[in-house]
Amino acid sequence: MSQISPSEDIRSVTDLKRHTRDILDQLHTTGRPIILTVNGRADSVLLDVKVYEKHLQAGNLAKLLAPAEQDVEHGRTRSAREFVKELKSARKISG
């Protein structure tokens, strides 16, 4: 996702009502979010659905990695060699 362009990507809700198709075309073309304002203040953000899905995937991955990161922070780690040895032993795999 590109850096937000304040002159192009901050629009009023009134502008959205009047130029919906143009704003959606811009959103899909640039991949940048559109910040909607109400009474001159930021209120909402529009995202292209593909960009939104990427954000969801990144958030889900971060949730999956968080426990592992805590293990590393607390020194609860072991070498890959040790892990493979334990795995082979638990699964009764020879070699």
Structural category is alpha+beta
The CATH H-level homologous superfamily of the largest domain: YefM-like domain
In spatial order, strands of the major sheet run 1-2-3
Annotation, overall tally of beta strands: 3
The N- to C-terminal Cα distance equals: 47 Å
In helices, the fraction of residues equals 55-70%
- The CATH architecture of the largest domain can be given as 3-Layer(aba) Sandwich
Following the backbone from N to C, one meets helices and strands in this order, namely HEHHEEHH
| Tally of discrete structural domains | 2
Number of helices: 5
What portion of the residues fall into strands of 2 or more residues? Answer: 5-15%
- Taking pLDDT < 50 over at least 5 consecutive residues as the criterion, the unreliable ranges are none
Rg, alpha carbons: 23 Å
Q: Give me the CATH fold name of the largest domain.
A: YefM-like fold
The CATH class of the largest domain turns out to be: Alpha Beta
Shape: elongated
Largest sheet: 3 strands, mixed
What is the topology?
Elements: H1 6-9, E1 10-12, H2 13-18, H3 20-30, E2 34-38, E3 41-46, H4 49-73, H5 80-91
Parallel strand pairs: 1-2
Antiparallel strand pairs: 2-3
Give a short synopsis of this structure.
With 95 residues, this protein is α+β, with helices and mostly antiparallel strands. The chain contains five helices and three strands, in the order αβααββαα. The longest helix is centred in the middle third of the chain and has 25 residues, at 49-73.
